[in-house]
Amino acid sequence: MSVLERLAAFFGILGHYPAYILAYFFETLFMLIFVVVMLIVMIYLFRKYMARVQLRIGPNRVGKAGTLQLIADALKLVGKESILPSRRDDLPYKIAPIVVFLGLIMAFAIIPYGDFYYIGSLTITHSDVSLLLLFAALAIMPVGEVLAGVSSKNKYAVLGALRGVAKDISFEIPMMISVLALVMMASARTNQPLDLVNLISVQSIPYGIPQVIGLGVFFIAMIARAAYSPFDMSESDSELVSGHSIEYSGMRFGMFYMGMFGSIFLGSMIVSLLYLGAYNGPFSGDAGFIYLFIKAMVLVILSFTIWLSVPRIRIDRFVNMGWKYLLPAAIINLVIAGILTLGLSL
Hints:
- By secondary structure, this protein is mainly alpha-helical.
- It has 12 helices and 2 strands.
- The chain has a two-stranded antiparallel sheet with strand order 1-2.
- A hairpin with a 3-residue loop joins β1 (115-116) and β2 (120-121).
- The radius of gyration is 21 Å and the shape is globular.
- 40% of the residues are buried.
């Protein structure tokens, strides 16, 4: 039994439709709380990890070991005056951070989380096209960044938005070709709709083993997609002084900031789902969510290490990397997937 069914049974005295409406409402609320808590935990972990790597102290004053520092920072952001540029396009300027955060939340709502002991399945939505829905939700976030850059009427913000567009076009095509290889291998094993759950259930071994090239391409593309170092040229604080978000202050800037960390966690979850066996593992019948969470957190730490270790690359080399290296590698991976599927029946 899933969380949705348990909540619907709890509200069953109200009737079928009111019970399911309330069940969806509370399930979505629980998911929002989970995402916000994870963002706070990730930002705290990143700051402590960065301090350790760079031989600094890190947050240590507010709360035990600085655990309440993020709460203090959040209150500071909420309390700051919201300064608006006078020449802005008002509506797109104000909705841009909401669009970024909305795309992030929608993507988290589509992910299948697996089972968690007595609670059962934690998956929120079930759809035959959940794979397409996931990447459609991911495509919403860059729209918010472009809206922010163009509506701010600031040349640095516009340059940051244009760099963001170049980044998305250069890396999303190799990423989608990598996913196409997964669909090719999975479609040979089932006649069921290729939603995320079926895609995971038909794998005999994690897709990352026969498609190690696809795993590498997808992981690099997800790092570029999340726009942190070495692929943070759309922000580029030394040249564009925060790029598309330069004219944002207070909690509006905080939403962009949380969107970046959310993208790291979301990307790690997606890589774990598609290539690392998702919620499968030894005795994973009840602990599927734990397996998925551990795999995702290992990738988060790997992402933090890359962030802190690799310098920002130049925009032309960045674009070249997507078109000249990742795209051919993704096509080669697609050919290998075809050989494994049709030739070796893997």
